[in-house]
Design a protein that fits this description.
The protein is of the alpha+beta class. The chain is about 65% helix and about 10% strand.
């Protein structure tokens, strides 16, 4: 897939040219979307069948005391669960919009790494700072937002004015969402969002496509070639994962 950018300013000695931004064909975001919707349906059915007991929530929510006892899967499974219809509706829409665009920009393998590690990082930070139970895909979604911010910042010269506009729009979305979380009446896990955001920013910086301009072909288009890859960024990704694991281990040991 390609996306066209017309009249993008080029640094000297390049003239103003048309470029094709190389995009991947996204599919994983739809799998994730189907998964969280299906699990939410399972939550609803569970409450109906088991007389009000939400079994998936009981087995997978971020509950600090159970994590301390060794149920470490609860540092990931909250990303699959939601607390109500409005919660799943908002996060499903955000995953549809963000996931499609970011998977197209980064490619499926890098998108999967950002989504999965951001989910865990957000739940780890929530475990460290928030005593209340929490669930939701927003830890991973904030990681996606942060990775998109990294993409447009690192490629701001290549993408020109369009890239600058997208960068400002993303910053506004981030400010609004964190601002909503600070409202007294909100029931939002801000530390979970912050952990996902920090991890997504780090991974976005490491995994971000790094474009190089190729000479124009016969069709009059300048081509962008991505010189980055998951393999190239793997040492940095492993370091991020080790930091997350170290923070989680230290927090658990401190509470035993």
């Amino acid at each position: 897939m390609t996306e066209s950018f017309d009249n993008v300013p080029r640094p000297s000695p390049y003239p103003v040219v048309q470029m094709r931004l190389p995009l991947s064909r996204p599919w994983l975001y739809m799998v994730l979307l189907g998964l969280i919707v299906s699990i939410f349906a399972g939550q609803v059915i569970s409450e109906l069948v088991l007389d009000g007991v939400d079994l998936p929530m009981a087995l997978g929510a971020k509950i600090n005391e159970y994590i301390i006892r060794g149920e470490l899967w609860r540092l990931f499974t909250p990303v699959l669960l939601h607390g109500g219809l409005m919660h799943i509706a908002f996060n499903a829409y955000a995953l549809y919009v963000l996931g499609q665009g970011i998977e197209s920009l980064f490619g499926t393998p890098r998108f999967a790494v950002i989504y999965g590690l951001s989910a865990v990082a957000g739940n780890v930070m929530s475990f460290v700072f928030t005593p209340e139970p929490s669930v939701g895909a927003s830890t991973a979604l904030f990681g996606l937002i942060a990775s998109e911010l990294a993409f447009f910042y690192r490629n701001r010269d290549i993408l020109g004015e369009l890239g600058q506009r997208r960068l400002m729009n993303i910053i506004m979305v981030i400010v609004i969402n964190f601002g909503l979380g600070l409202m007294p009446s909100s029931n939002i896990d801000n530390f979970g969002h912050l952990g996902g955001f920090i991890c997504g920013a780090a991974l976005g910086w490491l995994l971000c496509p790094q474009y190089e301009i190729q000479p124009m072909g016969l069709g009059g288009w300048a081509h962008l070639v991505d010189r980055n890859s998951l393999q190239r960024a793997l040492p940095g990704v492993v370091m991020v994962a080790l930091v997350i694991a170290a923070i989680a281990t230290g927090a658990i040991l401190a509470r035993l």
